Amino acid sequence: MTSKKALVLGAGGFIGSHLVNKLKSEGFWVRGADLKNPEFSPTGADDFIIGDLREQEVCRRVLDQNFDQVYQLAADMGGAGYIFTGENDANVMHNSVLININIVELCVKHKVGKVFYSSSACMYPEHNQMDPDNPKCNEDSAYPANPDSEYGWEKLFSERLFLAFQRNYGLQARVARFHNIFGIEGTWQGGKEKAPAAVCRKVAMAKEGESIEIWGDGKQTRSFLYVDECVEAVRRLVESDFSGPVNIGSEEMISINDLAKMVIEISSKNISINNIPGPTGVRGRNSDNKLIGEKLGWQPSRPLREGMERTFKWISEQVAKQ
Ligand code: NAD
């Protein structure tokens, strides 16, 4: 039996590199494409093309046949320090939208079986996420739209783009809205890292009795999903008949200060928290997993603490290596 062929765009990135490994473990032949190789271990892909997917010519080389499945994860993105300062707004919108426009058209041209698009919880309206204890992120609450970042607006446009191609050109699209995915082999320094990795790095670098800086008052809330759970949910969505958009996240909401306290406890160090002004995004955000439960029977299987323990251990090793 010949194996199914999958193409992973953004395969040099955090979630993309984990997804490649997952697809390989399921017996797929996988081509990856990205601007760069995965940073922390060699790609698991059978074939890997380095190139800039903003260029049509590169996209034509990468997506040159009728893949059974295409996973579009390539995007210009980062954590709060990248997305919420405003400094990268033009690039974030321009770069990601070019990739999506190139890819969606080629998916139709080559009659790919299914295409997965990774949207983000950042597309949800800011006005529903002002109360840290009561954020509203059910899929139906997306409109009237009011994301708090240009990154969120681009995601909203692009999820609509894939679904419009589904309606008009018979594309089989699957759209998920990821809520803060974290884990080992993710960016942990350099300005694009997200809160879980940043907190782990700060705690790993702090000495006994020192304090770590946390942006904002620390009362802002989020939920975090371990990357293995994320790629499992993505696979289930793609194999299902449901197009989405659907949340892929955890409902275990926690304040950022409590997340920091959790990591400090894991480290067994005596460290305090110093809340300083910084970019924070909305006050509260939590995944709402009702729809994915109904449609796919999926829920995260492990608690946040377990993923944070693994991530802290891995980031501590990276810090020690430097
Ligand atoms: P990542 O930054 O690690 O991966 C994205 C990859 O896209 C990077 O390797 C980058 O090099 C690549 N890329 C960017 N521009 C490119 C270009 N012009 N040509 C080729 N490759 C290019 O991010 P991630 O955390 O793995 O996220 C994957 C996807 O999931 C993204 O679309 C992101 O917006 C979405 N998402 C992630 C999260 C999260 O918490 N990590 C949350 C919501 C949505």
Write structural notes for this entry.
The protein has helices at residues 14-25, 56-62, 80-83, 89-109, 150-169, 195-205, 227-239, 256-267, 290-296, 304-321; strands spanning 5-9, 29-34, 47-50, 69-72, 114-120, 173-178, 181-182, 211-215, 221-222, 225-226, 246-248, 254-255, 272-276. It is of the alpha/beta class and 322 residues long. A seven-stranded parallel beta sheet has the order 3-2-1-4-5-6-11, with helices on both faces. Helix 4 (89-109) packs parallel to helix 5. Nicotinamide-adenine-dinucleotide binds at residues 10, 12-16, 34-36, 52-54, 73-77, 95, 99, 118, 120, 178, 180-181, 187, 194.
User: Can you tell me the CATH class of the largest domain?
Assistant: Alpha Beta
Q: How big is the Rg?
A: 19 Å
Total helices: the number is 10
CATH superfamily of the largest domain: NAD(P)-binding Rossmann-like Domain
CATH topology name of the largest domain, in short, is Rossmann fold
Domain module count: 2
Strand residue content: 15-25%
Shape: globular
Approximate helicity band: 25-40%
Which stretches are poorly predicted, pLDDT < 50 over at least 5 residues?
Answer: none
What does the average pLDDT come to?
96
Spatial separation of the terminal alpha carbons: 46 Å
Helix/strand-derived category reads: alpha/beta
Q: What's the CATH architecture name of the largest domain? A: 3-Layer(aba) Sandwich
Instruction: Give the tally of β-strands.
Output: 13
Strand order of the largest sheet: 3-2-1-4-5-6-11
